[in-house]
């Protein structure tokens, strides 16, 4: 097994930050299926275009999605081909969560 480097740690931290928000998680899951325009993503996820713009900016900053100019519009896709299978693998995990824990005040210990 390879030893984790600071680069690996930083990358996992960025992914964790991205997945810590439900809207960003839903965007990543949608983009693993196919690239999309922000307006289509906003409509599909039921969020405002401003919220979508802010969340896509965050995901771009994390290096997880990339913007592709298309005339006067821009569409988005996952920035790396390894991300879709990784998200699929994460979806296969089964987590047992105490419903009284991690309710936003996260005091899990």
UniProtKB/TrEMBL annotation:
It comes from the Bacteria. InterPro entries: ArsR-like_HTH (IPR011991), HTH_ArsR_DNA-bd_dom (IPR001845), HTH_Metal-responsive_Reg (IPR052543), WH-like_DNA-bd_sf (IPR036388), WH_DNA-bd_sf (IPR036390). Gene3D superfamilies: Winged helix-like DNA-binding domain superfamily/Winged helix DNA-binding domain (1.10.10.10). Residues 4-98 form the HTH arsR-type domain. This is Winged helix-turn-helix domain-containing protein. It comes from Cellulomonas fulva. The lineage of its organism: Bacteria, Bacillati, Actinomycetota, Actinomycetes, Micrococcales. PROSITE patterns: HTH_ARSR_2.
């Amino acid at each position: 097994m390879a030893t984790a480097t600071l680069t690996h740690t930083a990358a996992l931290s960025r992914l964790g930050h991205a997945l810590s928000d439900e809207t960003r998680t839903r965007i990543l899951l949608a983009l693993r299926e196919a690239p999309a325009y922000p307006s289509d993503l906003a409509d599909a996820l039921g969020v405002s275009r401003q919220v979508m713009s802010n969340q896509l900016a965050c995901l771009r900053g994390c290096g997880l999605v990339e913007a592709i100019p298309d005339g006067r519009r821009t569409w988005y896709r996952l920035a790396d081909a390894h991300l879709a299978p990784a998200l699929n693998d994460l979806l296969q995990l089964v987590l047992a969560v105490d419903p009284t824990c991690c309710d936003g005040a996260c005091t899990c210990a």
